[in-house]
Amino acid sequence: MKDLAADESRWTFHPSLSSLSPVERSETLRVLLDHFRRKLAINNRILQETNQQQIRRRSEQNLNEFWGLDSEINQLRTSTRFVLTGTSNRGGEGISLGERSALGRYLRTRLGVTSNEYPNFISDILNLTISQGFLSAGPSG
């Protein structure tokens, strides 16, 4: 992350980012990625719903009541999906990354991004983090 933050050429998509020091860019990236992590937006097989259903079935087959999962409480959590407002047809599936979201408000306040600039800004910063392997894009639509 330090190398990315230090690479001036990667941050030209918005003046507020290009004017930040590498340390400040690194902090901005950390806030962005921590937001995804806290919401369990982690691309890992074990957090996918089908794999968790398999875990529940194997638990029911191989463990007794004491050691197994409680059938009345959903103790497993699937990963979260974030969506850009206006780019997904999946109505209601995911957490918005719009300008009024917690992350959107932080970025707009911290970096001085206007409402008009925000859609391109968030798209560009997500594309940057995806291109560097920090995030992955899911299926759209």
Task: Walk me through what this model shows.
The protein is mainly α and 141 residues long. It folds into two domains: 1-43 and 81-141, no CATH class; 44-78, no CATH class. The protein contains six helices and two strands, in the order ααααββαα. A two-stranded parallel sheet has the order 1-2. The longest helix is centred in the first third of the chain and has 17 residues, at 22-38.
Please describe the topology of this protein.
Layout: H1 2-6, H2 15-18, H3 22-38, H4 49-62, E1 82-83, E2 95-96, H5 102-111, H6 118-131
Parallel strand pairs: 1-2
Tags for this entry?
single chain; mainly alpha; 2 domains; two-stranded parallel sheet; 6 helices; 2 strands; 45% helix
Count, helices: 6
SSE pattern: HHHHEEHH
Number of DSSP strand runs: 2
Mean pLDDT: 80
Helix share, percent: 40-55%
Task: Determine the N-to-C terminus distance.
Answer: 30 Å
Which structural class fits the helix and strand makeup? Answer: mainly alpha
The number of domains is 2
Principal-axis shape: elongated
Query: Runs with pLDDT <50, length 5+?
Result: none
Q: Indicate the proportion of strand residues.
A: under 5%
| Biggest beta-sheet profile | 2 strands, parallel
Widest sheet, order of strands: 1-2
Rounded to the nearest angstrom, the radius of gyration is 19 Å
